[in-house]
Design brief:
Distance between the termini: 67 Å
Number of helices: 6
Largest sheet: 5 strands, antiparallel
Helix content: 10-25%
Strand content: 35-45%
Oligomer: single chain
Structural class: alpha+beta
Length: 513
């Protein structure tokens, strides 16, 4: 009984005696403002990573990525946290006491000096703005350049920050090499679009880079931040704000079909192209679909692109609109007017799109179906007809159950269009224009995931297969069944895919640089 009681008491008191000491240590106490310090917290017990509360650090420091390790020494377990810190201000700073499972670490006083630090760590972050004065809503390009010389490993980088700004990355990272002081260095260039809506002066916080100094004695984490940049937002001289502020803005439209005459029931396909320099896609104005009496109107998707061209941000969107007249007469489209502020000439301009009226003629009588030639009664034609009917019914049922509903694209590691290509071939066999149109877009999304096409014009194969794809679109919007044949489209797609084999590429490149 006494032994059982002693065991019970030892188990009861063990949690209270397990964690006895929490120690804190920094690798330097005298430093420059652009230097980072490595804080190490050690607890003499096996704890979870969440046992340390780091929230007090965010008041006076930029906090890097925390690294946690469990150590064993002389038969006892230890928990260790390592956190790189970058001071926000110069002067005397203090790393506060931190809580670890109810116990506190020691506070550490740092002397942070102003000025440039010695060349213990090379400057790896460089930032710049293409313009320092903007109008409300105007976009500035923020360029971030990261250099990775020998002996340094770059692990992560944060975007620039400003609470009132809208910030988005433009395009992909540009990774290259350059020679500095006779030594090769890897570089990463990343571009952001930054816009602010209210007048005033704003300070942009530079990205923070975290990396490691590669040493034979062991790698040391570090933080580095680029210089802060200031931008001034000037008020517009007009009380009524324009729809868009741009370096250049164009609005164009054309008919996809080149027919000079249009009849009732024939689809009219209008393509409207909006292009702006110095703007993002979300800043482009919306174009409404006009409504007419006696005309069925459809929004047939859009294609868009956004990127850098000759150092300028260019956003372009093509909108497809389909109209099927139900009665003869003259079809007049309302003009489209966009008021925009020219940031280069600093004046208000108007872009207007007008299209001439279209005359709709009465449709001709629907053509009669061609009669099959008559054959003698002993030719076996009824049996041949029955055989073809059964085969056609089997094909229809197979298409209904296997190709009617296209499954969602799987999340695959490699970009490959084999799955959607099989679905497209099934749709081609069905000869249904609507299903072929859907399957083509499905195939385009899988083969070109960075484009995500929403209309046939945005497919990279469209320029080579334009006559076949235009005929498909006409069949999709036709009021009555047409004599459209799938043979030319099937042959064109097969030939194009054979001439353009698809290399397998990883969706996510490994490593930052």
């Amino acid at each position: 009984m006494v032994k059982v009681l002693l065991v019970f008491l030892s188990l009861y008191t063990l949690p209270c005696m397990a964690l006895e000491r929490v120690e804190s240590h920094s690798d330097m106490t005298r430093m420059y403002q652009q230097q980072s310090v490595l804080l190490t917290i050690t607890a003499d017990d096996k704890l979870d990573v969440s046992a340390l509360d780091i929230r007090p650090l965010f008041k006076n420091f930029i906090v890097g990525e925390l690294k946690f390790a469990e150590l064993s020494r002389n038969g006892r377990f230890f928990s260790q946290w390592q956190i790189p810190l970058l001071p926000l201000q110069a002067g005397q700073q203090q790393i506060p006491k931190l809580t670890v499972s109810g116990l506190y670490s020691q506070a550490i006083t740092l002397q942070v000096l102003e000025g440039a630090p010695p060349e213990t760590i090379p400057q790896v972050v460089d930032v710049s703005l293409d313009r320092l004065e903007l109008w409300p809503g105007q976009v500035a390009l923020y360029r971030l350049k990261i250099s990775q010389p020998a002996g340094i490993q770059i692990d992560s980088v944060t975007p620039p920050t400003q609470a009132a700004a809208r910030i988005q990355q433009i395009g992909d990272d540009l990774i290259g090499n350059e020679i500095v002081g006779g030594k090769r260095s890897r570089t990463l260039i990343r571009t952001y679009a930054i816009s602010l809506n209210q007048p005033g002066r704003y300070l942009l916080q530079s990205p923070v880079v975290q990396g490691q100094l590669l040493r034979a004695s062991g790698n040391r984490p570090f933080l580095q931040q680029g210089p802060q940049l200031s931008v001034q937002i000037e008020p517009l001289p007009h009380q009524q704000p324009p729809t868009l502020i741009s370096d250049n803005f164009t609005l164009e439209a054309h008919w996809q079909t080149a027919n000079s005459s249009h009849k009732v029931g024939d689809p009219l396909l209008r393509l409207i192209t909006i292009k702006a320099i110095g703007n993002t896609l979300d800043q482009l104005p919306a174009i409404e679909l006009p409504a007419f009496s006696g005309v069925r109107s459809y929004a047939d998707g859009q294609s868009q692109s956004e990127g850098l061209q000759h150092g300028k941000l260019v956003a372009e969107r093509t909108i497809r609109q389909a109209f099927i007249p139900q009665q003869p007469g003259k079809l007049t489209f309302p003009p489209i007017t966009i008021r925009w502020w020219n940031s280069l000439s600093q004046r208000l301009e108007t872009a207007e799109l007008s299209m001439p009226p279209v005359t709709i003629e009465a449709s001709v009588t629907s053509p009669t179906m061609t009669q099959l030639p008559q054959t003698s009664g002993d030719s076996g034609f009824p049996w041949l007809t029955l055989t073809f009917a059964i085969a056609w019914l089997a094909t229809l049922l197979t298409w209904w159950f296997t190709g009617r509903r296209l499954p969602k694209l799987p999340k695959i590691r490699y970009i490959n269009d084999k799955l959607s290509w099989r679905q497209l071939k099934r749709a081609l066999r069905s000869q249904d224009p609507q299903q072929i149109h859907l399957a083509l877009l499905h195939w385009g999304c899988q083969r070109w995931p960075h484009l995500q096409p929403t209309c046939l014009e945005s497919l990279p194969c469209y320029p080579d297969l334009r006559p076949e794809l235009d005929a498909l679109l006409a069949a999709c919007f036709a009021q009555t069944p047409t004599s459209w044949s799938v043979v030319a489209l099937r042959r064109g797609l097969l030939s194009w895919r054979e001439k353009h084999p698809q290399p397998e590429k990883r969706l996510n490149p490994e490593g930052l640089i």
